[in-house]
Every structure is written in structure tokens, then in C-alpha cells.
TrEMBL record:
InterPro entries: Mn/Fe_SOD, Mn/Fe_SOD_BS, Mn/Fe_SOD_C, Mn/Fe_SOD_N, Mn/Fe_SOD_N_sf, SOD_C_sf
Native species: Cinchona calisaya
Domain called Manganese/iron superoxide dismutase N-terminal: residue spans: 57-141
Cofactors demanded by this protein: Fe cation
Designated name of the protein: superoxide dismutase
Family per record: Belongs to the iron/manganese superoxide dismutase family.
Amino acid sequence: MIWSACGINFCSSSSNLVPRIGSSKLLNRPNKHHYLDCKQKTNLYENRRPLKVVAYYGLRSPPYKLNALEPYMSQRTIEMHWGEHHGSYVDTLNKQLAKNDILYGCTLEELIKVTYNNGNPLPEFNNAAQVWNHDFFWESMQPDGGNSPILGLLQQIEKDFGSFNSFRVKFIDAALTVFGSGWVWLVLKREEKRLAIVKTSNAVNPLVWNDIPLLNLDMWEHAYYLDYKNDKAKYVNVFINHLVSWNGVMTRMARAQAFVNLGEPKIPVA
Ligand SMILES: [Fe+2]
């Protein structure tokens, strides 16, 4: 019997799943054996068993030293937030995937969409989404960040929000009105071809609605409590004024424009 998930074919012979083969420590990347057909997998597996998968996803490091965001985000906060919370999502996800063959081999984005399951999430969803959200969050910041975007991104923000200051006010307001734990995002909406600010609860990620994320801010208490206690407003303002990596957002925007044409409609000339 053959079936597929995440665009990958799986097969079974008699009662056994023919297999995920070998150990993969690759990050967010399908095992190369997924591209083999069932017969090839079977031959490989028979020659190499018993083998054990020891890891599916790894904990990706922030793209700067752990003290590089001081004094705005302390090394202690990042050590705890990245090393413990983010690390724990990775570990728990790997344990869950070890029990669920059908999900093995998905990229992290595929895994998020499949396990969201149209709003009726599978158990793996929260950890998968939180791993992605945190990888994205670390890359949403940079040392000497803040200021304002430039060039086309600034023009698009001005077009969709009126001005950069208006965007800034709306983003801060959205962050401060996240109920409980969650995230605030700047996204590009594919169908409407415009930027928007969205809030999500817990681990939910705009990928599940087919939005393209450009920037996110973690509004879970673990993100700010050590540095700012309950002063969420200070945390959010510091993020906007000193930490946002507009360079990173511009790179994401350029990539997004491969999928969404933000230019004027092209009117055919007879
Ligand atoms: Fe977090």
C-alpha cells in the first residue's frame, strides 16, 4: 500500500512500514532517502538494519552572539528563552515525530500546515509551530536594529498603513492587546496583495492562513519577564526602536515578491 503526506510517498509491506532509513541530523530538510521509491528503500533497509533515527530537527542558533542584543535583550533572557524554551520545543517535537512515521520527512513549514489540520490541530502542531516561530523571531532582530525600513519596503508600509509612524503605533497596539500568550506579526497577504498586522494565540502561525510572515514579536511572558517584568509596553517599544532587523524584513519581502506581484496591474496593450 502506498500513501503520501507532505508530498512524500510512503509504502508498507505486509504489516510493516517501509521505513525511514538512517539517522538524519539535517535541519528542516527531508532525508535524502525520501526521494527513493519503495523498492529502493526496501533494498537499502534490508542491507542496513537495524538503524535508529536519532534526530529530526535541530536547535538553530540565533544569528548573533547571545549577548549581542544587550542592553535591550539580556544574554540571560536569550539563554533561557532560546536555550531552554525554544530547545524544549525542538526536543518535544522530535519525540512526537519518533512515534508518528507519517509525518517524518516534512519540512517544518509543511509540518505546520499538515498538523494545523484546518484548525483542528494534531498534537505535533504546537511544538512544530513554536520551533518555526522562534527561529523566525531570532532572525527578526539584530544588534543596532530599530530605526525604520528604507526603499520599497518603506513605500509599501506607507501605502498600506499611511505612514511608518502609523504602522509603528498599530504594531505596538496589536502587541499590547494580545490576550494571554501569543505573537504579533507583520505579514504580506497573498490575495489582497497588501501588508497587514495580525495577532495569533499560543503557537498559531500565519502560514496556516497562507499569509507570508515578514516580522514577528514573541508576546509570551518568557520573552520579556526577566528584563522587563510586567512592563510589556517597554518591551514592545524597545523591540521596535532598537531591535527590529529591517534588513531581515526587506530580505523576506524580496523573497515574498517572487510569489506576490505588488506592482501596478499590467494592462495589455492591443
Ligand atoms: Fe518564546
